[in-house]
Amino acid sequence: MMNSIVGNPEVGIYRGRLPIGCELCRIGAKLVIFVTGECGDNCFYCPVSEKRFGKDRIFANESEVNDTNEIIWEAYRMSALGASITGGDPLLHLDRTVKIVTALKEEFGSQFHIHLYTSGRYATTDAIRELAYAGLDEIRFHPINEKYLKFAERATTFDIDVGIEIPAVPGQEKFIIDVIKWAENNKVKFVNINELEVTERNYTNLLPMGIKVEHGIAGGSKSAELAIGIVKELEPSKISLHYCSSVYKDIVETRTRFIRTAKNVRKPYEEITGEGTIIRLVTKKWNRDLETYGEVIGNELHLSPNLDKEILHSIDEAWLVETHPDARRLEISRTRIRYPES
User: Fold this and answer.
1) 3-state DSSP of the chain
2) Is residue 228 within 8 Å of residue 13, measured between CB atoms?
3) Cα dihedral sign for 89, 93, 94, 96?
4) Residue 37: its pLDDT value, please?
5) Residue-wise over 159-191: b if at least 16 C-beta within 10 A, else e?
6) How many CB atoms lie within 10 A of CB 214?
7) Which residues contact 220 (CB under 8 A, 6 or more apart)?
């Protein structure tokens, strides 16, 4: 029996042991592979963006990729210890998904942990067998109704950790509890309950339900209250039960992954912020002596923002530039700075 509840309700709480996939997410060590935006289900609360939903595109973290080599390269960039495969539904492109799992296992070894998300609609016995043979470690089913539970039950006959991951939809408390009770009796190792994420694509469906951005960056407070209540009020279970908030997904998970990536990819003159972003000083006017302190890219000189004041005061005009650490180097801000400061 697993009695104690661990964690902070603002971020996430759990009873029992966290799934390995979740443990690796907490330290930012999971490469997120978006295999396809195509899906046979059309859940009204789906948070996938317009940019990806329904489109057959592949992303490794934030970067769009075209083949397994680019996925492997992204894993090296962040020193990944595992990967999560998501969509859409990855099983709609089973051959592609199996190829990715096989390639990652061959490159990083059997200890490289891989989990996959699916509604289960396409989880045939043959499909699960192929994934197990390729080396998939964990499969998480998202049953949209009780009929879908049979797909998860099918997976428990293979050497793969089977879990259930469902959203906390207000009004569906009975369904969630029934799923947890079912999981306890059917060799399922864990149930994750996620707070609903309010996005630009699903908010028109969620607002009539009274779900709006009140908790964290994108979480619906009613959803959070429902999930926390279920974890706290249910009797101790023989399986792991975990509530994951939108705050955790949007801040903790992303931040730790950014920090992990930034440590690998930052240049000597770049600094890492507490949020895992990268900052540098950029100027378009400089004397040649300054080039030894940084790097000339095009018509700009890139420098450390922490240079000695005497050096910085020789620059007439500069910008403090902050970017994401991923391959896109998306610019977040550019603040104009004048030297010498008054």
Assistant:
1) CECCEEEECCCEEEECCCCHHHHHHHCCCEEEEEEECCCCCCCCCCCCCCCCCCCCCCEECCEECCCHHHHHHHHHHCCCCEEEEEECCHHHHHHHHHHHHHHHHHHHCCCCEEEEEECCCCCCHHHHHHHHHHCCCEEEECCCCHHHHHHHHHHCCCCCEEEEEEECCCCCHHHHHHHHHHHHCCCCCEEEEECCECCCCCHHHHHHHCCCEEECCCEEHHHHHHHHHHHHHCCCECCEEEEECHHHHHHHHHHHHHHHHHHHHCCCCCEECCCCCEEEEEECCCCHHHHHHCEEECCEEEECCCCCHHHHCCCCEEEEEEECCCCCCCEEEEEEEECCCC
2) yes
3) negative
4) 96
5) ebbbbbbbbbbbeeeeebeebbebbeeeebbbb
6) 13
7) 170, 195, 196, 198, 206, 211, 212, 213, 214, 246
What's the CATH code, domain 5-260?
A: 3.20.20.70
Q: Could you tell me whether strands 295-297 and 278-283 are parallel, antiparallel, or unpaired per DSSP bridges?
A: unpaired
Q: What is the CA radius of gyration of the chain?
A: 23
Q: Burial, 245: exposed, middle or buried (Cβ in 10 Å; 0-12, 13-18, 19+)?
A: buried
Query: If you search the block for the tokens 């009873």, which residue do you land on?
Result: 15
Q: How many residues does the chain have?
A: 342
289: number of Cβ within 10 Å = 9
What percent of the chain is predicted at pLDDT more than 90? 64
pLDDT in tens, 285-330: 887 788 888 899 999 999 998 888 777 777 878 899 999 998 888 8
Per DSSP, what are the bridge partners of residue 303? 281
pLDDT tens digit sequence for 32-75:
999 999 999 988 888 898 999 999 999 999 899 999 999 999 99
Residue intervals of the chain classified under CATH 3.20.20.70 are 5-260
